[in-house]
Amino acid sequence: MGGRSMMWAAARREELGGRSVAKGTLPRIWGFASPYRRQLVVFLLLTVVSAVIGVLTPLLAGRVVDTIISAARLPDPVRVVVLLAGVIAGLAVLDAGVGLATRWLSARIGEGLILDLRRSVYGHVQRMPVAFFTRTRTGALVSRLNNDVIGAQSAITDTLASLVANVIQLVLALAVMIGLAWQVTLFALVLVPVFLLPARRMGITIAGLQREAANLNADMTTRMTERFSAPGATLVKLFGRPARERAEFGARAARVRDIGVRTAMVSRVFLTSLSLLSALAQALVYGLGGYLAVTGQLAPGTVVTMALLLTRLYGPLAQLSNARVNVMSALVSFERVFEVLDLRPMVAEKPDARELPEGPVSVRLRDVHFGYPSATEVSLASLEEVATLDARGGEEVLHGIDLDVPAGSLVALVGSSGAGKSSLASLVPRLYDVTSGSVELSGVDVRDLSFPAIRGAVGVVTQDGHLFHDSIAANLRYARPEATEAELVEAMERARLGELLESLPDGLDTVVGERGYRLSGGERQRLTIARLLLARPSVVVLDEATAHLDSESEAAVQEALAEALQGRTALVIAHRLSTIRNADLIAVVEHGRIVERGTHDELLAAKGRYADLYRRQFGTPRLAEDVVEPAA
User: Are 605 and 614 in contact (CB under 8 A)?
Assistant: First the structure.
């Protein structure tokens, strides 16, 4: 075990290099560990007891040998041997009990710490703005919640316990050995450098192999994640690339296999060498100790004690030689967790956040200026898996927007792609905060409202409504967990999904698949509308909800949307102008500014930007009259 620890730590040393831990990390670690301080004290005391037992047992074994050899000179040697054997057995039972208690405490402390860290990181990440998730690699973020949290936990339950136990055992074993036979002890220590030095060279080799294997495994994981998703698998099939995909994946997998074989052999050669050195050291103890015993300079039992204590000496030496690397590895894991926790959420709830006034809800944007945050404000290079963060960002995309959406009215936003429509709509549910100006719900700035108040008042349907890989019921109840089955069925029917529900053998328990890909595009979109209906928001934001649907699906979705918008304040982003002809107000957005506003007829008569967009979409005004208008 000592050899494996040395080899692993040497490899980690190469990875960590000269890295130092940020100031203040240790106090923060104690902040997480402090709820377990009593359990930690008991855990460390039991670790000390186990270390003491580990040194006492060889001493008692030596006494047994001495008693047997000098039995003729003792009045009752049998009684002494039996008594010593009983004490050794008792210590063994005690050590077993201490081991179980230590393991239980270690598990309690470690798993509790993992729970606390995961809760903290998960809760903190949920408070991050959408910009954080658009930049961060999901796998890197998940790794913080899994690998780094577990690595941080090892600092408390493994590294700390190992450090304490090894120091005590080493000091006790060395003191006892020097007291029994300092000459033999010195000779045994001569081989220590030979025991320790090979670890570094082997560690460098293994570190390089591990690094390459980790990179290859990460690449394979990324490839599998992308290719095994429904869109990725479809793309591979459409372009007829399965054979090449298999070949590329197989080449990487074969290299991982070769690295695994080489790592196994390097490890085995190293461990065999260390075992040989340990055996040679033990032979030296038996040889020199035996000579001293034969010549009467040492008791025979002392030779046995020295040989047994040798194992208590080399193991801790191997562990402690890499203690700094083990501690640093654990601290770096903590630091990587704290890195995420230190990212400040740009959209935060005020301590004195308000609730919305009762009654219908209006929306108003006052002189709104907005620019998306830069990477340095919302992300980490390590989470994006880049050397340095992209310095771009922060440019203003909305310039002085003023817009009123009275309670119960429907206001539509139209304009070219990239004009700023979706940016404007994202400010209403406070996915982002304005740079200056204000967004108000019923006259209250959204920055002064509580998050539950905003989420309860504003519902959003995007052009690619997301569904979880779960049942229809679970996806619907995400909007209102307490909803009854009857309410779920009613929402499905209002969203024009009643026939679909009846056709499904498992009904509401039907699993929709990853991102809802077991349903058609129209069915997915109507299911997100059913979820919206279940949430019962006062304000509805539709962000091109029918942009990617065919005519038949669009008609069904439009019927569902008409149900969803009834009696509610609505802000609708529309690509197809036919869907918003009956809007109370149409605002034309270009280059982050509202350049026109009015009703459909008013804007056509003005012959400005809206009229131009309308002619491009329908060819002539005459053709536009033939477009069937959905209920508004």
Answer: no
Q: Which range scores top for mean pLDDT: 294-303, 376-385, 396-405? A: 396-405
**Confidence label for 210 from pLDDT (cuts 50, 70 and 90):** low
CATH topology of domain 2-8+20-341: ABC transporter transmembrane region fold (1.20.1560)
Q: How far apart are the first and last CA of the chain?
A: 73
The values of phi and psi at residue 376, to 5°, are: -65, -20
Identify the bridge partners of residue 589 per DSSP, sorted by sequence position.
594
For the chain, the structural domain boundaries read 2-8+20-341, 363-385+392-478+520-625
- How is 383-423 classified by DSSP, letter by letter? HHT-SS-------EEEEEEEEEE-TT-EEEEE-STTSSHHH
pLDDT of residue 632 exceeding 50, the answer is: no
Between residues 35 and 520, the one the model is more confident about: 35
Alpha helices in 428-484, H assignment, sequence order: 451-457, 472-477
CA distance 528 to 497: 11
The pair of structure tokens assigned to 484 is: 């009854």
Average pLDDT over residues 515-536: 82
Q: Which stretches within 155-299 are classed as H helix?
A: 160-190, 192-196, 198-228, 230-238, 242-294
Q: How far apart are CA 577 and CA 474, in angstroms?
A: 34
Question: Span 308-332, mean pLDDT?
Answer: 71
| 550 — pLDDT class (breaks 50, 70, 90) | low
Length of the chain: 632
Cβ partners under 8 Å of residue 205, min gap 6: 266
Q: What angle do CA 250, 255, 258 make, to 5 degrees?
A: 125
**Residue 631 buriedness (CB in 10 A; 0-12 / 13-18 / 19+):** exposed
Q: What is the pLDDT of residues 338-367, one digit of tens each?
A: 888 888 888 888 999 999 988 889 999 999
Q: What pLDDT, on the 0 to 100 scale, is given for residue 325? A: 60
Q: Do residues 467 and 524 lie in contact, with contact meaning Cβ atoms separated by under 8 Å?
A: yes
- 431 is written with which tokens? 């996915």
Q: Which residue has the tokens 């460390």?
A: 44
Number of H helices, E strands in the chain: 26, 10
pLDDT at 528 over 80: yes
- Give me the CATH code for the 363-385+392-478+520-625 domain, please: 3.40.50.300
Q: Is the dihedral of CA 483, 486, 488, 491 positive or negative?
A: negative
